[in-house]
Amino acid sequence: MKNPVLQKASEHFKNQLSGGMKSIEVPEWETTIYYKPVATFAEQQRVFEYHNKGQLVEALIETLITRAKDEEGKSMFARGEFAFFMREVDPNVLTRIVTEMNATTQESEANLGN
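RESULT FIELD:
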């Protein structure tokens, strides 16, 4: 890469991504959900699309499906399970999980300059 500013920006973001995963205990589901405190635009593209259409519930579910990992870093949920979340999962639990993920993401983004 020829642009030194973009090189530094890329290195900084890679350091953020490699910083390890956070976890959320979900006693209602008897599980722990892991996630990275930062996410790429590519990972969040569908979330943004739902949000821009005013489909906030769909954006929450997409966030969970996209970001939730097991302790080995593998996706916990598949895109095909979207409808299941819409109809079969307690919205309060789902909202709590995604709110915690997003709060951690916002903290990480606020610290990007440090």
